[in-house]
Design brief:
The chain has 14 helices and 23 strands. The protein is an alpha+beta fold. It has three domains: 290 residues, Vaccinia Virus protein VP39 (Rossmann fold, 3-Layer(aba) Sandwich); 61 residues, no CATH class; 57 residues, Archaeosine Trna-guanine Transglycosylase, Chain: A, domain 4, CATH 2.30.130. Strands 5, 6, 7, 8, 9, 10, 11, 12, 13 and 16 form a ten-stranded mixed sheet that branches. A five-stranded mixed sheet has the order 19-21-22-23-20.
Length: 438
């Protein structure tokens, strides 16, 4: 691949004797990765389905290398949310963050949702996750991926990092700041990134990263963990940003990452050596990860939203369809949401989705959403099975035929829910969202 001379000189200075091995690795195919979603599929079923195509990755609890070169875009298992495509080492930052059920966790720069969904999978619907993305189009992609994941505790927002920090000061037990960067670790899988890189790119990105990292600090509760990560190689956006940050925030301290993969950071200061570095010669693409903790203990509890009256038709529908009731319900502007975390007051933040959008009243009927069917919180009682042929038709938005009784059903493929349908007794009205169709 073609890389600019200034970049190559920088990497030679950085890696020294390992530079030839780095150059050789950069001209090899990038690693492909896949991450099992434990909210939807067991390890046994997943290995039965994909076992011949994968090899375990060291970077994530549920991560694997994908050995096959086959396209997976229209794989029903992916569209059902049974797995997520992610470059193997890109999952390492969440492993270092180590989110636990019951925590309140912020993913500050979250699109496209790779790390948000990984956090959700580790928390198993226990606790609260706020996933924020500043760019509106990318925020919609984030929403699609969190919805497909099926977690019932994710709040998706489209805001600046300052807006999040102003509303949720000292609130989160853990914050992931996977900052926008010059993307040097993406060159192997995205040659266009190598073309766009300039010697000025790291300085421009570092200035922005410092601003975002300061807002991440404001969101973090005393005693909480902050993980800063990038997918770039240079010192300026990595160790030098951390050295600046720790100097500016005396109550923050670097911690050992507690992982065996990768290598230590460069000792710009004694603290930065505790970071994790991953290069293509380490089995991934390119990542820098730093784990830090804030002094003190305790956090702000947060006020809760006030709900409109939940329509009785909605409550009746939920009772008929679900084996277990959502512990929290919220009705806002006629739309009903369910969740496994409280609905925290968000003020003027731009909300994209508050946990699980269940549906809304249309006339005298409650109409469930696609998200209602994709949620993993409770098994849906009324189901209809789709064949391999029918599931592709479903994802294309085509009409399906079945003689099941009138009403709403979760459409299942091999026992896994792919969405919703409504039967009139002769055919199934396809409710797969038009924007997701293949």
């Amino acid at each position: 691949m073609i890389m600019k001379n200034e970049f190559l000189t920088m990497m030679q200075d950085l890696l020294k004797d390992e530079y030839p091995a780095f150059l050789e690795a950069m001209n090899q195919k990038p690693s492909r990765g896949i991450r099992r979603n434990p909210l939807k599929i067991s390890e046994e079923d997943f290995l039965r389905m994909k076992g011949d195509e994968i090899r375990k990755s060291p970077f994530a609890r549920y991560g694997y290398y994908l050995l096959s070169d086959e396209a997976v875009k229209n794989d029903p298992a992916r569209l059902a949310g049974l797995y997520y495509m992610q470059e193997p080492s890109a999952s390492a930052a969440v492993t270092v963050l180590d989110p636990q059920p019951g925590m309140k966790v912020l993913d500050l720069c979250a699109a496209p949702g790779s790390k948000t969904t990984e956090i959700a999978e580790l928390m198993m619907n226990g606790g609260f996750i706020l996933a924020n993305e500043i760019h509106p189009k990318r925020a919609r992609i984030l929403l699609e991926n969190t919805e497909r994941c099926g977690a019932s505790n994710i709040l998706v927002t489209n805001c600046t990092s300052k807006e999040i920090a102003d509303r949720f000061t000292d609130f989160f037990d853990a914050v992931l700041c996977d900052a926008p960067c010059s993307g040097e670790g993406m060159f192997r899988k995205n040659p266009e990134a190598a073309e766009e890189w300039t010697p000025a790119s790291p300085a421009v990105c570092a200035a922005r990263q410092k601003e975002i990292l300061h807002e991440a600090y404001r969101c973090l509760s005393p005693g909480g963990v902050l993980v800063y990560s990038t997918c770039t190689f240079n010192l300026q956006e990595n160790e030098e940003v951390i050295a600046w940050f720790l100097k500016e925030h005396a109550d923050m301290h670097a911690e050992d990452a507690g992982v065996s993969f990768g290598r230590h950071g460069f000792p710009v200061t004694g603290e930065t050596a505790k970071a994790v570095r991953i290069f293509p010669i380490d089995g991934g693409e390119g990542h820098f990860i730093m784990r830090m903790r804030k002094e003190g203990n305790g956090h702000v509890s947060g006020s809760l939203m006030k709900s409109e009256r939940i329509p009785p038709e909605c409550l009746r529908f939920m009772k008929e369809q679900l084996g277990e009731a959502y512990p929290y319900l919220l009705c806002r502007r006629g739309k009903v949401y369910g969740g496994t975390a409280p609905f925290y007051e968000t003020g003027r933040l731009h909300l994209i989705r508050d946990q699980v959008y269940l549906g809304e009243m249309k006339g005298k009927d409650f109409v469930p959403s696609h998200h209602f069917f994709m949620s993993t919180f409770s098994r849906i009682r009324n189901t209809v099975s789709l064949s391999d042929e029918d599931v592709i038709k479903y994802f294309k938005g085509e009409q399906l035929f079945s003689t099941v009784s009138r009403g709403w059903y979760a459409a299942e493929w091999n026992g896994f829910v792919v969405g919703g349908v409504k039967s009139d007794g002769r055919q199934l009205k396809n409710k797969y969202p038009s924007g997701l169709r293949i």
